[in-house]
Amino acid sequence: MKSLFKHIRTYIFRGLLAVVPLVLSFFVIRFLYLAVDQKVANLIEKVVGFRIPGLGIVLVLLILYLLGLGASHWAGKQVFGLIGRMMERIPIIKTIYHVGKQFSTALSLPEKQAFKRAVLVEHFKPGVHSVAFVTGETTDAKNGERLIKLFIPTAPNPTTGFVVMVAPDKVRDVSWTVPEAMNVVISGGIIGPDAF
Question: For 52-90, what is each residue's pLDDT tens digit?
């Protein structure tokens, strides 16, 4: 009975970790859209005398652009760092903020080449291949064998998946780029290159 509760607790927590970044993104974008569309777009509508279709979306994108621009400069980094330190002191917010920060860090990693290349690896059983991304290399301390670190994403949500370490001969190189392979994962195999 104890193991059942541990199993349930573990998977509830994993489910929470899987959904939190998506929910956070949804609420941030929704908040920005509603705040901008209902307040600023309505104000502009009063000034110009008519509604401009799509103005709310354009303004949200502009705000996100300006936030990104600000966060990339020294002063912006200081402000966001201060906000981050404040968020990390509030117990429940700390957990949600930390997950959101990890998620945004993971999304920014493609610029730093987090995924070196796309490959196929036998995953569930021999002859069944999964799309995987090479994230690096490591060495087995016991025998000195070189291993390739792989992230095998789950479809259609590539923010979850499995991290495995395999011998180089267990990996099958493909001609896909990382974005092409990610399209295969996100679309559940519907979109992607015709050959590998």
Answer: 777 777 777 787 788 777 777 787 778 777 877 887 787
Reading phi first (left if > 0) and then psi (alpha if -120 to 50, else beta), residue 188 is in left
pTM: 0.47
d(CA 145, CA 95): 37
Instruction: Work out the number of other CB atoms within 10 angstroms of the CB of residue 103.
Output: 17
Q: Two tokens at 138? A: 């490591």
Answer positive or negative: Cα dihedral of 149, 181, 186, 63: positive
Task: At 29, list the tokens.
Answer: 């974008």
Cα distance between residue 178 and residue 31, in whole Å = 32
Would you say 138 and 149 are in contact if contact means Cβ atoms under 8 Å apart?
Answer: yes
Show the tokens assigned to 37.
């569309």
The model's pLDDT over 116-166, given as tens digits with 9 standing for 90+, comes to 899 999 988 888 899 999 988 999 889 989 999 999 988 877 778 889 999
Q: What is the CA radius of gyration of the chain?
A: 22
Contact between 133 and 185 (Cβ < 8 Å): no
The domains located in the chain, with CATH, are 2-111 (no CATH), 113-186 (2.30.30)
